[in-house]
Amino acid sequence: MAVSFRLPMLRGLVGFRPDWLRSDIPAGLSIAAVGLPSAIAYPAIAGLPPETGIYACIVAPIAYALFGPSRVLVVGPDAATMTVLAAAMSAIVASLPAGAPVDRVSIAAALALGVGCFCFAARLLRLGVVANFLSRPILVGFFAGVSLSIIVGQISRFTGVRIESDGLLAPVIEILRKSASIHWPSLLFGLAMFCLLWIAKAMHSRIPGPVLVVVVSCLLSALFDFQGRGIAVIGDIPRGLPSISLPAISQMPLDKIALGSAAVFLVSFGAGLVAARSFGTRAGEEVDANQELIGLGAANIAPGLFGSFPISVSDSRTAISLSVGGRSQAAGLVSAATLVAALVFLHSALRILPIPALAAILATAAIGLIDVHELRKIWRISRMEFVFALIAMWGAISFGVLNGVIVAIVATMVYLLRKTMYPRDGLLGRIPGRDGFYDMGRYPNAAGIEGVAICFIQGSVLFYNADYVRTRLRDIANDLPPNISRFILDGSAVVYLDSTGASALDAVRLALQERGIVFGVAELNAEAKALLERAGVAKNIGAENFFNDKESVVTRFHLQKERDGMPARGGGEQTSSPREGNHEQDV
């Protein structure tokens, strides 16, 4: 019998059956096994102690199980989110007064609370669509740039040499200058673990590569006293569980906290929603972005209250859970309980884990962020989208990850503007023996309607494309045969119209009027028509020249011809469609 949870906060456990534990327990153990190495390694990206990652992997899945809508998604630390977090923390630290104490854990916790607040605020405003501001090509390019930043950031952990420069090439040049200071045992061991990860992946090892590296590294560290031989280890990890505490936000620059939280929120939710939709399709779940905001908001507030950092949907943990057969959020709860046990009972083993092994795990994870297959797919589908993916990659590398977020957003906005700045247009005609109207540019057998030109604009007419639309309509009118007395704009595809667009249509009307051609509009939505009325353009056009459908245009013209004693024909010698706009969507 199904156990019913009526509270909406337990949607991830709705319909839970006790026999699901046969799948959820192994899935939870697998999530913990895969998650522990990254939980220890990822905090290093932001200069945080390893226990903060373990805390995040404990409290975040519990919070998501309580408030998240999905049965299958697993949350946790994410390499890309950690890189944006590191950039945000650096900006906050740089803004502190000289000599002021720096508590990186408190700053990370404050940012986690900020991300959670942004999630809740976006949910209240139903702004789940905000995640779509970072399109898939932009995210793919951005993550490729982030991955290169992560890889370069591991140079000091691989070599034992302190690297002071930032960027992509500067650290490489610095390590070449300091090559005499490289600790070769650390470098060789790190490279060996890096190779072990790829060998495990190539051989499809039943033991996940990161787990294998952690076990082998700890054993070798214990046998050969790596710490005594100069190989850095992670050191002491608090044995107990974290306690609830609020970071001293009042002592931090609130503007930098807000901006940093917004950047982390946008990237983590954007990437998380892409993952949620991907895994939701595989699991037969419909993803509601606004509901996911509640789950992710709670999953970020919890780490903020327990001295940790922001999290996102974890691709690797979710994939492991589904592959083992995880059925509900009970798997996440089992993984949290397993990590609690690891924190208590594996304390001594984890403290001797070599830093170069963590660098190998991070470098491998970073390489996994470079989706070469997706980049090739984008190149094949749309060269322009590929260019924007490269722009996002370049922004993350050249301007730093935090500024790279801004570059990615700007690139998205430019891309959207470009797609809507040049709406497709053309003339509509009839095909003998068939009903309806057809784009004469796509259907050579479509003939124009004698005396009437029906032109479509496929897109909104707004301030940034109004001049282009006005020019296109004027050019189309100039190419019409002399027998045209009616020029009708098919407004069925005009979604939005603003005051600038209204002025552009009025200018077209006036230019046609000077040539003795009547301008009319068909099938315009009520909102756009109301704007034309407020602008006074509707009055200039005349109520009799607004039509509910295109058939009414032809019918009225024929009736007028008959009244005038001039029989009208259904087709004529109107010229074929003029040059079309830039887009290729069908009409």
- Unreliably modeled segments: 1-7, 568-587
Shape: elongated
What is the total tally of β strands?
Answer: 8
Strand order of the largest sheet: 4-3-5-6-7-8
Major beta sheet summary: 6 strands, mixed
Q: What structural category arises from helix and sheet content?
A: mainly alpha
InterPro entries: SLC26A/SulP_dom (IPR011547), SLC26A/SulP_fam (IPR001902), STAS_dom (IPR002645), STAS_dom_sf (IPR036513)
Pfam families: STAS, Sulfate_transp
Domain STAS: 442-557
GO cellular component, one term: membrane
Question: Which SSEs are present, and which pair or pack?
Answer:
Blueprint: H1 21-41, H2 50-67, E1 75-76, H3 79-95, H4 104-124, H5 136-153, H6 155-159, H7 169-177, H8 184-202, H9 209-224, H10 254-283, H11 289-305, E2 312-313, H12 315-324, H13 330-345, H14 347-351, H15 355-369, H16 372-381, H17 383-398, H18 400-421, E3 424-429, E4 438-439, E5 452-458, H19 466-478, E6 486-490, H20 499-514, E7 518-522, H21 526-535, H22 537-541, E8 546-547, H23 550-563
Parallel strand pairs: 5-6, 6-7, 7-8
Antiparallel strand pairs: 1-2, 3-4, 3-5
